[in-house]
Structures are given as C-alpha cells and as structure tokens.
Amino acid sequence: MNTYLIIADDFTGSNDSALELAHRGLSTIIGFSSPKGTVDSYVLDTESRNREGDEAYRMTKALIKDLDIDSYDIVLKKIDSTLRGNILEEIRAIDEKMNSDLILVAPAFSQMGRTCVGGTVFVNSVKLLDTEFAHDPLKPVTEDNLITLFASEYSTIHLSVDEIRSKAFPLIKDVQVIVCDAEHEADLFETVKWARGLDKRILYVGSAGLAGALIQYDRPKQPALAILASLSKASRAQLDYAKSRGVAILAVDVLSILKGGDFTPIIDQGVQILQGGEDLILTLSSALDRSVFQQSIEVGKALGLKDAVVGTMIKDCLSKVSLEIIKASGVKNLFLSGGETAFGLMQMMGINEVKIIGEVDIGIPITLVLDGPYQGMKIVTKAGGFGKEDALTYSLRRLEERQL
Question: Residue 64 sits in which domain range?
C-alpha cells in the first residue's frame, strides 16, 4: 500500500484533503510539525497561507527540514482551489527538499465548482479573477492562469482537457512543470493514471480534487447508481446540479416505454459506465423535460390506456431496466428517489429488511440491506421533494465511503 504525504498551507485545507483519504478507509493524521517516522498518510499544516512569500518559503523549508520525504510514495502540495496563498514559494521549498523529476499541477475540484480550462482556473464557470477571490482581504489572487504563473520560474507545458480525454499525453523531456486542465473528476483520474505510469518522482500540486484522484488510483471507489423517478422541482434541480458536476445521466424514454421499445442499448451503456468506475443517474425523459410527461398521457390515451396504467407501465419499466443494470454491473451502492419506484425495485430485488446506518441530510437515510441476494448493499432513499440542490450529488459521495 502506498504512503501519502500532503503539505497544506492552512488547517481547513489540510482537513478537506485528508478527508479524501479517509473516505477510502486510509488512516490519516494531521499535524503541525514533521511526523516522527513514516505513517500511512500524513497531512502537514504549515499555516503559511497569509504570510509574505519569503516568510512562507522559510516556514515551509524549516518545517520539512528533518522530514524523510523520500519515504513517502506520493507527495502532494495541497493548494487552495482558488489559488490563494504563496504557491510558487512553497512549491520551491518542497521541491528543493524532494528534488522531483516533474511537478504536476492540477488544481480542479469539480465537486465544488472549481475547474481548469486552458490553464485558467474557473469558479462555477466564472474566471477566477472575476470572482470575489480576487479581492480577498488577506491574500488576493492576482493571476488565474497557471501556465503564466509557473512559466515565470519553470519550463512549463500545458495538458488540455481534449488531450486528456483522447489520451494524447505528451512525452516529458526537459520539462519541469505540467499544468493540467480538468472539468470533471474523470479528467483528474485519467491524468493521475497517466502520471502514475511514468517512471518519475512527481511532486503533485492541487486541491482536494487531486487528492481524491490519487487515492482512487490505489483504492478504487465503488460507484453508485441513482434511480430517479420523481418529477418534482427539487429533483429536477438536483439532476441539473449533478449534471453540472459531471455525473453521467441516462434517461429512459417514456414514450418508448408505451410503444414497447427495446432498452438493451441503455442497459449496456449503464453497465459500461458503472464498470468503468463512474457514478450513474438513471432517470426518465419526463424528469428532464416536464412536457414529455404530458405527451406520455396523450400517447396513452391514443392507445386506450388510463393515466394510472400509463404511470404503472413507466414505473415498472424503469424498475426492470434498473434491475438489469444492477445485476450486470454488480453495483453495490444505490440511491432511490420516488417512493413507488423505490419500493417496486426493492421487491424485484428480493429485499425484505434494511437497517438504517446513517443520514446524508435531514430526512435522507442511508440503509444497509440485511437479507436476500443483495445483502450488504447500501441504499440511500429520498422523497422526491426533499433536499437541497446538492442532495443527490452528496448522497452519491457518501455512498462511496468505505466506512460510514
């Protein structure tokens, strides 16, 4: 098992990066001085973010002076996802100690709306310098393009989102820094997979998003399948939020249900997404577009079907498609929203008993299946109208935790 060293510049930053390791069941210690001996994972808080650059350099250098940095397999300089702090100065101090072959910079944290495109950092799709962080009273940000920032001190190249997704990774020669774009978690993970295959001692530089991608490489997460049948405004807002954070969404066409369509392609696609380690939301076309619901009623009437029969056909089909994806993918984590659909699916799965083991938010429980072929599966259930816009996305994250 690889060991991890994270060097952060403030306490909250230390905690959010440590949390990524803890989510995967790795024992993690946060300290304010170098550890005595090597532990599985250690987060060193230098408390240097709001100091002047030269002082931050000296503080960092002094704190790691007696640190056996070579005993750690993975070294991450944790930076603020909005680039506050003394980034260049502290990296310089760490790299002088580590003598790395390459500095890989990837600050994105898509779950918090922080992305990087063209080397520029964005917060909820707004350029960093156009946000409030450019006016931070203690440490205002003066540069949001990392290529420009690092090229002032290092030979620097850029890895774009398109290159990452097409796996067109560069040959690393006479390069000190590579600035990596990322819009979604999958972009960070592809970058980490490539970097971990290099025969180089790498100093990773990024936020909690990069910490999560690094630990995922060693301890892959168990993806979750969300089944969303609710047509409520709250559910639609949660779908939109999840989509903005890069979660894969597949929609079963309700009109095809009424016309006896073939759903093998969507089942195969869902299985592929989950087996690739990504979360998946399975929903109805009427949940994405309210007008489709009215169309389904009209189509049902044309077929001589009562509204209640139309509703039952749609519910049963979604449950059957969901069950086929569950069986073929082996997914162990479920999120169910829409009471009738949730109950119908659990009946199909032969689930008779569940035990509440936690709570995502008020009124959103996490349960453990106690019997049947899916014993040990974790399920989050949510009433359609419950929860803030991030309730679905946060539930998927909680389901992935090794320990609740």
Answer: 4-217
Spell out a b/e string for 14-25, using b for 16 or more CB atoms within 10 Å of the CB, else e: bbbbbebbbbbe
pLDDT tens digits, residue range 186-237? 899 999 999 999 999 999 999 999 999 999 899 888 899 999 887 778 888 9
Which uninterrupted H or E stretch holds 315?
helix 307-329
Residues above pLDDT 90, as percent of the chain:
60
- In order, the DSSP letters of 335-355 are EEESHHHHHHHHHHTT---EE
Contacts of 367 (CB under 8 A, 6+ apart): 354, 355, 356, 357, 378, 379, 380, 381
Same domain, 24 and 57: yes
Q: Amino acid identity of 147?
A: I
Residue appearing with tokens 């918090």: 112
Out of 175, 197, 217, pick the residue that ends a domain.
217
- Residue 286, phi-psi category: left (phi > 0), alpha (psi -120 to 50), beta (remainder): alpha
